[in-house]
Design a protein that fits this description.
The protein is mostly helical. The protein has six helices and no strands. Helix content is about 65%, strand content about 0%.
Length: about 140
């Protein structure tokens, strides 16, 4: 049984390597823990530091689901494929890595602000609006 787990782990690493190569990055970036999430956030959202959102309890559940769906969309797949990446990463990463799916070069998967950005932008607007009324 552990031999099967070892083979699955190696195949997942190779699939991750191939996914990052398709995205135009070095393959090794896909297998380095934490750094691969940083690069993925940088590629999908334009800011790699968004991976720190995974440290926020409960919001991290939403963010990881959103990230997998956005990764699927970046490879011209649907939200269902993104849920597959979330629930069965071994199978769906192999499909992305070894399949014919092509990454959309230069097009970020999600340019819509997420919930945290909405709150920050609303707070900035409220502050600037209040500063304008005081003058």
């Amino acid at each position: 049984m552990s031999f099967v787990s070892l083979i699955c782990g190696i195949l997942t690493l190779v699939a991750s390597w191939m996914i990052f190569k398709k995205m135009g990055h070095q393959g090794w970036e896909g297998i380095v823990p934490f750094y691969n999430t940083y690069v993925l956030c940088q590629e999908l959202y334009g800011s790699g530091w968004k991976f720190l959102l995974l440290l926020i309890p409960l919001y991290n559940i939403y963010f990881i689901i959103k990230m997998q769906i956005d990764l699927a969309k970046a490879f011209n797949q649907g939200a269902g494929f993104g849920i597959g990446l979330l629930l069965l990463p071994f199978i769906f990463q192999m499909i992305l890595g070894f399949g014919s799916a092509q990454y959309r070069d230069g097009a970020q998967a999600n340019t819509q602000p997420d919930m945290v950005e909405d709150v920050v932008n609303k707070a900035k607007d409220a502050i600037s609006h209040n500063n304008g009324q005081e003058q």
